Amino acid sequence: MNLLAAQHFDTVGKLARNVQFADYLDGKKIYPVGLEISPVGTCNADCPFCFYTHGKDGPAKHRKVWIERIPLLQCLAQAALLGIKSITWTGGGEPSLHFKFELMVERAHDLGLAQGILTNALELPLYKPEFLEWARITVTNKSFHRGALERIRDKVKTVGFVFNYTGVRDIERIWETLHLAEDLQADYVQVRPALGYLGATVDILPPRIEHPLLYMPREKFQEASRKHGYTQCEGFHFQPFIWETGSVDVCPYMSKWENYHLGNIYKESLADILDRLPDSVPVSEFCQVCCRHHETNKALHRARTLENVRFP
Question: Tens of pLDDT along 100-128?
Answer without folding.
Answer: 999 999 999 999 999 999 999 999 999 99
